[in-house]
Amino acid sequence: MQDKDHIKSIEKCFVILDCLYSGDCLLTLEEITQKTGYKKTTCFRLLKTMRTLGLLELSPATKKYKYGPRLVTVGLSALKNMNLRNSALPILQQLRDDTRETINLTILHGSEILYVERLISDYLVNVNVNIGDRLPVYCASMGKVILAFLPNSRMKKIISATKFEPRTDRTIVSESALIKELAEIRVKGFAINDEELEKGLRAVAAPIMNYTGEAFAAINIAWTTARRPDRAVFTEFAQKVMTAAEQISGLMGYNRNDTSLANVA
């Protein structure tokens, strides 16, 4: 029997939000109509309401919908009590104290990474990134390292939905180049960003695995070339960030010796 208190319109809104989450994060009215099976007029009214509430935004240029600022705010409030962030925080603080550099924690969000924690170094010069900000996976160390430890089918789906744009002259700008680097990252266990996102910025990242053995988050150590120009820092920090990521993964239920875990190769 149908629950008389069940409100179908709210349910439909969440179906639309799920479409944006599990898809490319950018969909037109026609694409949302096709994915949900709802009438076009119904989708239009729901989308208009969610835009008014700040839950969704519409790009005038592409006519595609994406998550809005209010939805991100609500999500960040939930993240305050999220198991990942709470469990990781003491380890992140120790890593910052050990390296004296900025430590970041992100989760995978569609074809982007979403910053959920950021411990800033005491230096005056720092990159202007805040909790709640997002970056494309292809030009960020944390995005690349998460991709490298996803099942191939999911990794390729995300890459195919990625629009490559150069941030600097070192940015990866092709699918083939990214796939080649991901194979190398999987062997090494960490990813670097050598001024690919912004000139003068370097970082090294490691994946955080869940109990199935699949990457869903990442941490990195970020620094500037002005403070640390020596490339040997990559090697020094790589071991530190992998150790920290492994500790957090363990808290998330990951066991590298459990043969029942998903094979991401």
Can you put this structure into words, describing what you see?
By secondary structure, the protein is of the alpha+beta class. It is built from 9 helices and 9 strands. It folds into 2 domains: 8-73, Orthogonal Bundle (Arc Repressor Mutant, subunit A); 80-251, GAF domain (Beta-Lactamase), CATH 3.30.450.40. The strands form 2 sheets. The protein has a 6-stranded antiparallel β-sheet with strand order 6-5-4-9-8-7, with helices on both faces. Strands 1-3-2 form a 3-stranded antiparallel β-sheet. Helix 1 (8-22) crosses helix 3, helix 5 (83-99) packs antiparallel against helix 9 (232-251) and helix 6 crosses helix 8 (175-188). The longest helix has 20 residues, at 232-251. The relative contact order is 0.11.
Query: Approximately what portion of the residues adopt beta-strand conformation?
Result: 15-25%
CATH architecture of the largest domain: 2-Layer Sandwich
Rg, Å, rounded:
20 Å
CATH evolutionary superfamily of the largest domain: GAF domain
- What string gives the helices and strands in order? HEHHEEHHEEEHHHEEEH
- Percent helix, as a range, is 40-55%
> What composes the largest sheet?
6 strands, antiparallel
**Number of domain modules:** 2
